[in-house]
Design a protein that fits this description.
Number of helices: 10
Number of domains: 2
Pfam family, one: GerE
Keywords: DNA-binding, Phosphoprotein
Low-confidence stretches: 210-218
Protein name: LuxR family two component transcriptional regulator
CATH topology of the largest domain: Rossmann fold
Strand content: 5-15%
Radius of gyration: 17 Å
GO molecular function: DNA binding
Oligomer: single chain
InterPro entries: CheY-like_superfamily, EvgA-like, NreC/VraR/RcsB-like_REC, Sig_transdc_resp-reg_C-effctor, Sig_transdc_resp-reg_receiver, Tscrpt_reg_LuxR_C
C-alpha cells in the first residue's frame, strides 16, 4: 500500500506518518512539502492508494490543488488534513472530491480511525459536521475547468498566483518565454478568461478566506 503525504510542516508530517503506520502498518510513505513537490510526487506515483493533503502548503491557493489532483488522478482518494476547522470548509472539500477532512487538532487515534474508514470506501468528516453540498454551480464549473489543466499548465497557474511574470516563470521551469505564453493562452481558454487578471480573479474564488493569490505587476 502506497500513501502520499503533502504537508509543509515536518513535525506534522511525522505525526501523520505515525497515524498511517498505526492504521496501515505495511504502508509505504512518500512525502512532499509544497504543491510543486506534490505534482512531482503524484506523477511518480499515479496509482497511490491514498493522498493526505494540506490546504495551506506553499503554492496551494485554497482548493485549487485539490481539484487539480482529483482531475488528474481520479483513482487516488484524497483526504484533506488541515488546521482549518470551519464546517463550511470541510463540506467544500468534500464537494470538490475529497474523501475525508481531518482537522490537525484530531488525536492520533482519531486520525488513524479516519484513515481506516476512508480506505474502507467511506467518506469521513468529524462527528459534529454534517455532510452537504456547499459549492455553487459556478464554483463547481470552475473546479472542473481547473481539473482539465495539464500539470505543466497548473504549475504556470501557481506561479502566476505568486506574482511571477512570463519571463520569470520561463526561467523557473527552464523553458522559453514563448512556451509560457502558449501555456497562458491555453489556461485562459480553459478557464474562460480573457487576461491574466481575470485568471487570478477566477482562481481566487476557490481560495480559502484570507488566501487570495497576489496580483502580478504588469
Amino acid at each position: 500500500m502506497e500513501i502520499l503525504i503533502a504537508d509543509d510542516h515536518p513535525l506534522f508530517r511525522d505525526a501523520l506518518k505515525r497515524a498511517v503506520t498505526r492504521a496501515m502498518p505495511d504502508a509505504q510513505l512518500v512525502e512532499a512539502d509544497s504543491v510543486s513537490g506534490l505534482l512531482d510526487m503524484a506523477a511518480a506515483h499515479p496509482d497511490a492508494d491514498l493522498l493526505l493533503l494540506d490546504l495551506n502548503m506553499p503554492g496551494a491557493h485554497g482548493f485549487n490543488a485539490l481539484v487539480h489532483i482529483r482531475g488528474q488522478y481520479p483513482q487516488v482518494p484524497v483526504v484533506v488534513v488541515s488546521a482549518r476547522e470551519e464546517a463550511a470548509t470541510m463540506r467544500q472539500a468534500i464537494a470538490f472530491g475529497a474523501s475525508g477532512f481531518i482537522p490537525k487538532s484530531a488525536s492520533l487515534e482519531v486520525i488513524s480511525d479516519a484513515l481506516a474508514q476512508v480506505m474502507d470506501g467511506q467518506v469521513w468528516l468529524p462527528p459534529d459536521v454534517e455532510a452537504g453540498e456547499t459549492s455553487s454551480p459556478d464554483d463547481a464549473d470552475l473546479a472542473a475547468r481547473i481539473a482539465e489543466l495539464t500539470p505543466q499548465q497548473f504549475r504556470v497557474l501557481l506561479m502566476l498566483g505568486e506574482g511571477l511574470l512570463n519571463k520569470q516563470i520561463a526561467w523557473e521551469l527552464g523553458v522559453s518565454e514563448a512556451t509560457i505564453k502558449a501555456h497562458m493562452t491555453a489556461i485562459m481558454r480553459k478557464l474562460g478568461a480573457s487576461n491574466r487578471t481575470q485568471v487570478l480573479v477566477l482562481t481566487g474564488r476557490l481560495a480559502l478566506e484570507g488566501g487570495t493569490p497576489s496580483m502580478p505587476a504588469g
